[in-house]
Amino acid sequence: MTVLRGLTIAGVPVLLGVPQPPNRPLPVVLWFHGFRADALAHAQQLERCSDAGFLAVGVDAIGHGARRDEQLSARVAESDGHVMQIMREQIALTIVELPALVEALVRDFGADRTRVSVVGTSMGAFLAYELLASSFSVHAAVALLGSPMHVSFDALVHACDRTALLSITAEHDVNVSPDAALALHARLGDDARHHILRGSGHLTSREHWHEAMELTFVFLDRHAR
Question: Coil, helix or strand for 10?
Fold first, then answer.
């Protein structure tokens, strides 16, 4: 079973799982956590990823985890409901770091730069959509409990010509509406890759989280290798 290591790679704090034996070059899964969480929140999923043969990399976003911004709570309290703006700032800063992180993973851990996939939860899902629409090369993407509401649908449709995307949303999510993901997948013509957790809110039950994770790992096995 994988033993995760907390490391700083290219200046980015990560929780790393290296599959054994490390048959290089390795497909990579970058896993992005939610707002005010950290990579450790997904330790179980990172272990499972590594055990399945992926180089599993849980990334601490800017202002989170090992580089927690002590002023974040104050900023949120003073934001007058504009938390999304704060979150998007941190997403943008985190994305800037990723090319250097990937190059270091290629150089030092045998990663395959042509097979870098992403999984994001909540804030991490917003990041996954942003990343997919950027110039960053994404092999496959899973967005859980997030929204593409701030991203160009044209850019996402173009990206999905080369990248498989799975969106998982919650039916009764009052924090993040599933409507934009539903509209995106309707335009893509692949409604089957938008899964709605029926009866769930943003904070999922154990059963709904298990449902989401099983779908995620089936998808990664099919599309991220």
Answer: coil
Q: What is the distance between the alpha carbons of residues 61 and 82, in angstroms, rounded to a whole number?
A: 19
Task: Tell the burial category of 14 from Cβ atoms under 10 Å away from its Cβ (0-12, 13-18, 19+).
Answer: buried
CB atoms within 10 A of CB 210: 11
Residues paired with 197 in a beta bridge:
170
- Between the alpha carbon of residue 3 and those of residues 13, 18, 51, 147, 185, the distances in Å are 16, 8, 10, 32, 37
Higher-confidence residue of 34 and 71: namely: 34
Phi then psi for 3, rounded to 5 degrees? -110, 115
Evaluate whether 138 touches 159 at the Cβ level (below 8 Å). Answer: yes
- The DSSP result for 13-53, as a single string, is EEEEE--SS--SSEEEEEEE--TT--GGGGHHHHHHHHHTT
Single pTM value for the model: 0.95
Per-residue model confidence (pLDDT) at position 80: 65
Helices (H) and strands (E) in the chain, counts: 7, 8
pLDDT tens digits for range 128-153: 999 999 999 999 999 999 999 999 99
